[in-house]
Design a protein that fits this description.
single chain, about 375 residues, alpha/beta, two-stranded antiparallel sheet, about 35% helix, about 20% strand, globular, binds zinc ion
Length: about 375
């Protein structure tokens, strides 16, 4: 079996990247046709554990993974990353400062996985529960000095080439300070623009832009129902339907993070469980399309969640536990990685978040290695 130094290959994959992880020798991972990257925003190991325990230890779909790893998350300027720097790392393979989107710490533009996939002729998509202009999806589309520039980030979607994007954030497209209506530009460039879930489900062919809330989508507990799982399925139908070259899809369970900031354990669990239903859709797709790789990970933990005994009901998984929070902000511990499908076992190990897009670029053949 051919082996190589993945650290050396990484240098040629994404411009401007530096190797921030120990070089390691592994067998060559296989080429895959499709990659689905799923990000639980703020979903640390404790959040996943709480979701298992809270429902009397019901197994999660994430547990079907056959490659499991841990991911280091620090940003260029902070031991505790935010979603903007983490999204930039996960999309481009380069660390940047907290708050920055798609540019390095000096402001230089970085190529992201959506751009590299489009360049290679693959189809691309994003599905989120936040605004599509929020930090995590923005890292896969835009290049701006600060995550708060959501109207500017919306402009990047018009030129992105994405075949499908579904989420909230309508106000950043059509209720803007400059009075432009970007949804017009999107429909002129061939998108079906949907403003409700019925129209999303009715959509059959061609590019789809769905902006289903002014800003973020409602919480599950406030009536979002199975939006994330059905939208993930719709995106997979669109992406797998027409392009024989394959696709890259990013799916985010965005509101796990919001629930973590609020130290709201019920909501952390319902949002993580909802994200896990989207994971089921992706894993089932990989079962039916064996040339598909699914990576499930997080950008950081949120809330400093810990799960301890309440010292009373030791064996009852709900009543015997107490959920405590150390912060209303983010935390620095490693986050989980669950890989499923073709090549999944190569993702086992301890990684830096910048390694993940390098490996995705490699298995999708987005940057052929230089001799
Ligand atoms: Zn956050």
């Amino acid at each position: 079996m051919h082996t190589f130094q993945i650290g050396l290959i990484a240098v040629s994959l994404l411009v401007g990247s530096t190797i921030s992880y120990a070089e390691r020798t592994i067998e060559t991972p296989p080429k895959v046709k499709n990659v689905i990257l799923m990000i639980g925003d703020g979903m640390g190991v404790a959040h996943v554990s709480a979701t298992m325990l809270y429902h009397n230890e019901a197994p999660l779909n994430m547990e079907r993974a056959h490659g499991v790893g841990l991911v280091k998350t620090r940003s260029a300027n902070n031991m505790v990353t935010d979603s903007a720097a983490a999204a930039t790392a996960l999309a481009t393979g380069t660390k940047t400062n907290n708050g920055m989107i798609g540019v390095d710490a000096d402001g230089n533009v970085l190529s992201n996985l959506v751009e590299l996939s489009e360049k290679k002729g693959l189809s691309t998509g994003l599905v989120v529960t936040s605004a599509v202009t929020h930090a995590t999806p923005a890292g896969f589309v835009a290049h701006v000095p600060h995550r708060s520039q959501e109207e500017k980030i919306a402009e990047a979607f018009v030129k992105s080439g994405l075949e499908v994007f579904i989420g909230g954030g309508q106000k950043f497209f059509s209720n803007r300070r400059d009075k432009q209506d970007l949804t017009k530009a999107l429909s002129e460039s061939g998108y079906t623009v949907a403003f409700n879930q019925d129209d999303v489900q009715k959509h059959k062919k061609g590019k789809l832009c769905a902006l289903l809330a002014p800003n973020q989508m409602p919480y599950c507990s406030d009536g979002r129902a199975d939006y994330l799982a059905t939208s993930t399925q719709k995106a997979l139908d669109i992406l797998s339907g027409e392009n024989a070259k394959g696709f890259f899809l990013m799916v985010e369970g965005s509101l796990i993070d919001y629930a973590g900031h609020d130290n709201n354990i019920d909501r952390i669990v319902s949002e993580t469980k909802d994200f896990d239903q989207a994971v089921k859709v992706a894993f089932d797709f990989a079962d039916k399309h064996p040339d598909t790789l699914v990576i499930v990970t997080a950008d950081h933990g949120t809330g400093g969640l810990s799960i301890i005994s309440n010292s009373k009901n030791f064996t009852d998984s709900e009543k015997g536990l107490k959920y405590t929070f150390g912060t209303t902000s983010h935390s620095a511990e490693m986050v989980p990685l669950f890989a499923y499908g073709k090549g999944a076992k190569w993702f086992s190990g301890v990684w830096d978040n910048t390694d993940i897009p390098k490996m995705i670029a490699q298995v999708l053949g987005l940057r052929e290695k230089s001799k």
